[in-house]
Amino acid sequence: MKERQFWFIVGSQHLYGPEVLKTVACRAEQMAAYINEQREIPCTLVYKATVKTPDEISNIVREANYDNNCCGIVTWCHTFSPSKMWINGLKNLQKPWCHFATQYHRTIPNEEIDMDFMNLNQAAHGDREHGFIGARLRLPRKVVMGYWQDGSTLSELGLWMRSAVGAMESRSLKVMRFGDNMRQVAVTEGDKVEAQIKLGWQVNTWPVGELVEEIARVSEEETDALMAEYEKKYQMATDNLSAVRYQAKIELAICKMLDREGAKAFSNTFEDLTGMKQLPGLATQRIMEAGYGYGGEGDWKTAALTRIIKVMCEGMGGGSAFMEDYTYHLQEGNEYSLGAHMLEVCPTLSSDKPRIEVHPLGIGGKGDPARLVFEGKAGKATVSTLIDMGGRMRLIVQDVEAVKPIMDMPNLPVARVMWRALPSLTTGAKLWILAGGAHHTVFSYDATAEMLSDWAEMMGIEFVHIGADTNVELFKQQLMLSDMVWKLKG
Ligand code: MN
To answer: How close is the Cα of 305 to the center of ligand 1, in Å?
Structure first.
């Protein structure tokens, strides 16, 4: 994350003379150095220039567009920077933009303040001129407003950086599909051409037969080494080691194929496993734990979104994973959702050391698959889904509160997470269903609705949020108006 750069570009003009401009540049460098030291900032803010002319702005935007390390630009106007100077540059901007509205001094210095001070410190009106042109050009942008040494301000900037890293990841993401979508399922379908145009995703298919051949080529030595890692990292709660070994081979084979193609996400389906002895369970869980995205039953949209959210949230410590709403606990006043999947829940959500178990699986008609079984952690989280509305994608994000599962469920042989949707389970589920949200989601203890909203804005897709204050009537109106707006936007 620290290797990812954001360019700090300070707006000014020649009106103030070289001394003022020198002070501005010096302070901007000092601010970037301070900001980079703070724990709220995951990436590196690089002070690039104090820009004074339209050509300087156009040139630096062009450079930012073509620099692979540059994930976005952060602009600030220490002095007044006439915004017609910015039009040609900003019109060409292809990277996320944050307008950092701040000022160098925290408070008004009672006795020191004179007209020289006023000349130098003009952020309060400089940032308004700068804001107008963003609004006038109708450009997607984040406005972070606050003092540059305050934790809350830097936290907002830091989380925006994470969203921009997600946008960068999205634009180069490759998804490997084994098999098509589960037969007849609608919500996991989607327009892959539209997804690539809007989100950059290259979603393509590889034959399961090729994976079967790759599994057969995995050596016993490689398998032994991976089994030793399993023994160390997890609790081996089965005697059926040959079933576990087969999952180790699947893991090695899928990783080889993904890495060969540079793919960072994959999907498969239990309906297309010809030649495989088990449905990938433990193997898929392990690959997700390593940071790849995954979606079950051919769900390439959730696979890609899982990868992007994992990248955005790197190092935040909570965990993000492919998830499915399974069943409800509808005891009045004590309602919960139970989330799981038939095997594939990412162990980054685990509250303790996962157990490797082998159990029969009633679906898919294959051998008993090995899987990791664990309970999810308690804490605030979000669930996200991406659906294809026909002509556009809609990202729906819901705030949830995860709890330690309120019962043991000793006969449930899969990993499980329990949560309550906001504003309440029943209203939350109603809103989710009204918006068309899928049963598959990305569950994240790290990604916030604001981060995902910023990401959606960067990608140019519709965003719908369900949280503590969402009202059913207003929500329905919002969906109706949003549908009209997005039909116009195209
Ligand atoms: Mn599923």
So the answer is: 15
CB 200 within 8 A of CB 172: yes
Give the Å distance between the CA of 249 and the centre of ligand 1: 23
pLDDT of residue 362: 79
Distance from Cα 440 to the centre of ligand 1, integer Å: 6
Could you tell me the mean pLDDT of each successive run of 10 residues in the chain, 490 residues long? 97 92 96 98 98 97 97 96 96 98 95 91 93 97 98 98 98 97 96 97 97 98 98 96 97 98 97 94 97 97 98 96 96 95 93 94 86 96 97 97 95 95 97 98 98 98 98 97 90
Neighbouring CB atoms inside 10 A of 277's CB total 17
Say which amino acid occupies 369. P
| Residue among 265, 251, 248 nearest 206 (CA) | 265
- Cβ-based neighbour number of residue 454 at 10 Å: 27
Distance from the alpha carbon of residue 362 to the mean position of ligand 1, in angstroms: 14
d(CA 27, CA 174): 41
pLDDT for 365 equals 78
For the record, the structure tokens of 3 come out as 């290797």
Per 3-state DSSP, the chain is made up of helix, strand and coil in percentages (nearest 5) of: 40, 25, 35
CB 75 within 8 Å of CB 100:
yes
CA of 296 to the centre of ligand 1 (A): 5
What residues flank ion ligand 1 with Cβ within 5 A?
296-297, 324
| CA 323 / ligand 1 centre spacing (Å) | 8
φ/ψ of 7, rounded to 5, equals: -90, 125
- CB–CB of 143/157 below 8 Å? no
d(CA 383, CA 397): 6
DSSP letter for each residue of 415-437 = -BEEEEESS-HHHHHHHHHHHT-
How many whole angstroms from 169 Cα to the centroid of ligand 1? 25
Distances (CA, A) of 42 to 151, 156, 206, 450: 13, 11, 36, 17
Helix (H/G/I), strand (E/B), else coil: 301: helix
State in Å: Cα 439 to ligand 1 middle.
7
CB atoms within 10 A of CB 238: 16
CB-CB contact of 444 with 382 (8 Å) = yes
Kindly give the distance from the C-alpha atom of residue 56 to the centroid of ligand 1, in angstroms, as a whole number: 52
Phi, psi of 423 (to 5 degrees): -70, -25
Give residue 281 CA to ligand 1 midpoint distance, Å. Answer: 13
How many A from CA of 471 to the centre of ligand 1? 29
d(CA 105, CA 124): 11
The alpha carbon dihedral of 339, 343, 347, 350 has a sign of positive
